[in-house]
Each structure stands twice: as structure tokens, then as C-alpha cells.
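Complex record, two chains
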Amino acid sequence: MNFRDQLTGEADDPVLNEAVKHFKSSMDAWSEAAYRRPRAVVKMAGPRWRLATGWALGCLLAVGGLAGGVVEHQRRQELAKLAAVKAAQRAAHERLVAARSAAAAQEALDEQPAAEHINAVTSRTTSDQNLLATVDKDVSQEVPAAMEPLAQLMDDSGSQ
Amino acid sequence: MAAGTAVKPITVDDAEEIPAQEFASIVESHRPQIFRFLLASLRDVDLAETLTQECFLKAHRNWKSFRGESSAMTWLMRIAINLQKDHWRNRRLQFWRHTRANAVDLEDASDWLPSGERTAEQQLLAREKVTQVWEAVKGLSERQRTVFLLRYVEERELSEIAEVTGLSEGTVKAHLSRALGRVRAELRGSQ
């Protein structure tokens, strides 16, 4: 090889020259084969398309997240409302039951003295009648036979 | 210029078109050599392709700064050497892992021989010699290997190697001498 530098002394060594020549040939062949090998071309999505897809997916995720949050919030509000209504109904029912029981108790309490009063009045009237009857019985004296016509006369005049 | 001669004005697009065509022709003519040098340096086809791409990308970006003081090949080779050096330096651990994982074995690299009129025995002997040179190249320092490959694979002149590597010609000769000594020792060791 005429381009080689004589100072390095490789021209004097035929073994070295041959080895280096083979090395270069080998390298040329390998490089040529590697350079011309078929390459798989993968068509990649363009940057604009990828950007648009990314934005679309991002927006979809954001909208989905927001919608999910809103739906969840509304669901919780409805549940809270239902719970409040149930609690109010339960409280009203309890109040009604309490009022009813209180009214029943009051009624019971009210009915007891009236009966006692009626009983008392009835018994008092009865006793008064009995007393009067007793008094009449005790006070009244038997009219002697001689006074019978006079007594009868007084009764007649009294009745008139 | 004669009166009445129509002069076509050069538009901005035309001005950019000329260097683009020029650069395309440079890529066309020099790319195989850059690839071969990087392949010989790295023994990794994929990595050599990647760095070749990077080399021309970098050259394209800095094309306006290329003043033509040296040949385009020298300029491109300098970029390739710097890229290889940067790759080696910056990702030393990863580079070694990558190289060890993807680099072709010396035996496989030695399989590549030009088909000629050689007999099977001659081909076997040639293959053996190529393997020995690969073994020697493997043991060289980065600088020695670069100089050796530029000299004996790319067949560059010493002055050009000095320009590409940024070394003096004396240093290039010293590196080359040590590299050859190593190859010679490897060849003699097997005999």
C-alpha cells in the first residue's frame, strides 16, 4: 500500500501487511453489508396527530373526572336528602306517638274524677233521700184514731 | 452585462436550496465511510447507525459554520470522533453495558471476508488473521484505536489524521507505532 507511512515500519513486515489488508477487507465487507441491510421502517404517528390525540385523551380524562365528581356529589346530596326526610318522618312519628300517648293519659286522667263526681253525687242524692225518708219516718207520728178525720181534712186542704 | 438581458433575482428559497443540495450530495458520498469508521470503533451496528445519524444531524446544523478550510470528510470525521468520544465519556457505564450487550463478538466480526478466488484454507487463514487484528485493536487505547482505524481502514494520511484528531503528526506516529507493535505482537504470539 503506497499510502502507508514508512516511518512506522509496517512495509517491512509482510505478515503485518497481509493481516492489516485482510482486516480492512473484512471491515469493508461488514460495513457494506450492515449499511445495505434492510431496515424495518416503522411509520410513526405525526407529532400533530399525536399532540391532538394526547389533548383529546387529556380532555376526556378531565371531563370524565369532573362528570364523575359532579355525579357523585349529586348522589351524595340525594342520599343526604333522603336520610333527612327519613329522620324527619321518624321524628314526626315519634312525636305523634308521644302526643297520642299523652292524650290518652290525659283522657284517662280526665275521665276518672268525673266518674268519681257522678258516683259521689249519685251516692249523695241517694243518701239524702234515704236520710229524708228516715227523718220522715222518724218524725212522723201515727195519728190517733180520734184525730183521723181532722188529719184527713188537713191533707185534703193541703192538696187543694 | 449587456443591456436588456433579463436577470433572474435569487430568492431566499433559492439561496437555501443550494446548500441543501450540496449537503445532500455530501451525505450521499461520505455517509458509508463515517458509518464504517464508527462500526469499526464500536463493533455495534445499531450504535454506529445512531452515531452516524447524529453526526450528519450535527453537521447539518453547523453547515453554515463550515468554511471549507478542511475537506468535508475531515470535518465530518472530526464530528464523528467527537461524538464517539462524548458517548464514551458521558455514558461510560451505560456505554459499556450497551456495547457488551450489542457489540458483535470478535469471532463474528472476523466472519466478514470479501468473497474472492481464495480457497477454503486461505479463507480460514485470513479469518484467523483478522481475528488476531481484532484482538489487538480491542486492547488498544481509545486514541490508539482511532488512529489505527483512520490509518488502516479509512486510509487517511498522517497529516489528515492529525487534523481530525487534533494531535500533532509526531503524536499520531507514536500512537500508530504502538498500535502496530501491539498488532504485530498479537500476530507473532499466535505463530
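Note: Chain B has two domains: 12-103, 105-191.
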